[in-house]
Amino acid sequence: MFMLHRLIKGLVEIVYPKTCLACRNKLPAASDNVFICAQCWAKIKRNLPPFCHSCGRQLEKKSYAKNICSSCLKNRLHFDRAYAPCVYTGAIKELIHEFKYKNKDYLGAILSKPMIDFIKEFDLPIDFLDFIVPMPLYESKYREREFNQAEILSNHIAREFSKNVLKDTLIRNRNTKTQTDLEINERFLNVKGSFSVVKEADIKGKNLLLVDDVLTTGATSSEAASALKDSGANIVFVLTLAN
After folding, report:
1. 3-class SS at 134?
2. Which of 11, 29, 72, 151 could cross-link with 134 by S-S, CB 3.0 to 4.6 Å?
3. CA–CA gap between residue 172 and residue 198 (Å, rounded)
4. Distance separating alpha carbons of residues 209 and 178, to the nearest angstrom
5. Which residues of the chain have pLDDT under 50?
6. Is 37 helix (H, G, I), strand (E, B) or coil?
């Protein structure tokens, strides 16, 4: 039976060779729980200090003295601070795309690891935070995708640090256009008023960690944080996989 199993597995690998989700090169045969090759994983660009004290991106040298990037000086963001372990380019961008749009929800276990490691490495105040809140999807998009990638990431982080996830407290009350093709000002207008809190008692006076996969302009996270704060939340930090 064991020999037959090995034979079938070998035939499957010949017909459907397992490939790295980032570079598409063939993975070694003994890689049952590996979805990205070591070379691509090593090439993931890390977000390194000094960080902007608002959006969490690496600061350019000209902004060192102010501790805030030029973009955040122009746009007031409603969260207290954002963090991200990776830069949204290369392999991590490919993996996030596979995770969100190709029904590979199992990648959440892998993609949450850099977020967990970042919390530990830079001593983020996770003990100070009461709850983790995943960025919600609009109901029609959730039905289409059948999972919320932010909720999956939140669950892994919560499990590591013994936190509770509030998955039904923050909701999207309308379906917005995709932010991808919009200018910066249009992005802020697009998400204006698109979030609501349905259980205000859960978050009143609480410190929250809002989790999502990517932060670009910060418009979506800012609007979500605004809804949380308007409903009584105290501190709202944002953690994304990449920015």
Report:
1. strand
2. 151
3. 10
4. 24
5. 1-2, 4-15
6. coil
